[in-house]
Design goal:
The structure is a single chain. The chain has 310 residues and is α/β, with parallel strands linked by helices. It is built from 11 helices and 12 strands.
């Protein structure tokens, strides 16, 4: 007789494995998932491998040290809401469910707020229709202060804050690109290098933005001095200035390139300058269930628009 215990039908799935799945979808790495669950990183890796073996499917792809959930993993994760709500009621019969009238406070600088944030917010709102959401659009320096003071639950930013009161959790890497008008002669090139910008009109980011230093360093190392026509605080305004013919710009393509004006185009820039977009949250506070769910929505959206797809 066949041994039913050897059937790979998912019937032996363990609750621990499902908790691991949700933690990895939320955090993006086995190390962060282990911290969230209070177990070791090898235990997380073993549980994930066992779950994938039981299901006979790959649930995550590995890229740049992160685990990107497949559509299958996101589907399983979505089905877990009911299960974990029931378990919470069984384990804590006197515990009140989170109050959906307590708002989830989200903040982002203008570029991310206008070009990316609506998507994951819509995903979150459809999944949790009763949850109130407050969104603040703030400059990067004000945003960091608001997070450190606990006035924001979760923020998205491509700046690199150095503040003891702010927890930084990267969720996406992007390589700087050169933004230009589509009919610019440089559009004929496959890669833009510092010498291509020498003596060209150039739209720069203001010096208070951390990415400005890396860009200036790359140009200076090549002995290049573009003609800075204007400095601006946001990538969205830089794109508009480039569209108006005020020069070229070196920008973080995420998320601006997702909704680029048809008259503009981008080309890779070398030497490579990699920028991180991160979650910022108060360092002295654990993430709420609403915050964790929103972070998962952001990771899912960001994984659909990675470098090779922009």
């Amino acid at each position: 007789m066949p041994d039913d215990h050897n059937k790979n039908d998912g019937s032996d799935i363990r609750l621990r494995e499902l908790r691991v799945l949700r933690a990895i979808v939320t955090t993006g790495t086995t190390t962060a998932a282990a911290d969230l669950l209070g177990i070791s990183q090898p235990a997380v890796s073993r549980a994930l491998a066992q779950l994938e073996e039981r299901l006979g499917r790959t649930l995550f792809s590995r890229e740049s040290g992160r685990l990107l959930p497949t559509a299958e993993a996101l589907g399983v994760d979505a089905e877990l809401d009911i299960l974990f709500k029931v378990l919470a009621r069984i384990e804590n019969p006197d515990r009140r469910a989170p109050d959906p009238t307590v708002p989830l406070r989200i903040a982002a600088p203008p570029t991310i707020a206008h070009r990316f944030l609506p998507g994951p917010v819509a995903d979150f709102s459809r999944r949790f229709p009763d949850q109130r959401i407050l969104i603040d659009v703030l400059s990067s320096d004000v945003l960091v202060t608001q997070v450190a003071e606990g006035r924001v639950d979760i923020a998205l930013s491509d700046a690199e804050p150095n503040h003891a009161g702010v927890r930084v959790e990267p969720f996406r890497d992007s390589d700087v690109v050169c933004l230009m008008q589509r009919d610019d002669p440089l559009a004929a090139k496959t890669v833009i290098r510092p010498e291509d910008l020498h003596d060209r009109a150039y739209v720069a980011q203001t010096r208070r933005h951390s990415a400005r230093v890396a860009k200036d360093r790359a140009l200076a190392a090549a002995g290049v001095q573009p003609k800075i026509t204007i400095e601006t605080a946001t990538v969205v305004s830089a794109a508009e200035l480039v569209r108006e013919g005020l020069g070229l710009a070196l920008i973080n393509p995420f998320p601006t390139a997702l909704r680029l004006d048809p008259s503009l185009t981008t080309r890779p820039f070398e030497p490579r300058i990699t920028l991180q977009t991160s979650f910022l949250s108060p360092a002295d506070r654990r993430h709420s269930s609403a915050t964790l769910a929103f972070m998962a929505m952001v990771r899912a959206r960001a994984s659909q628009t990675h470098n090779g797809e922009i």
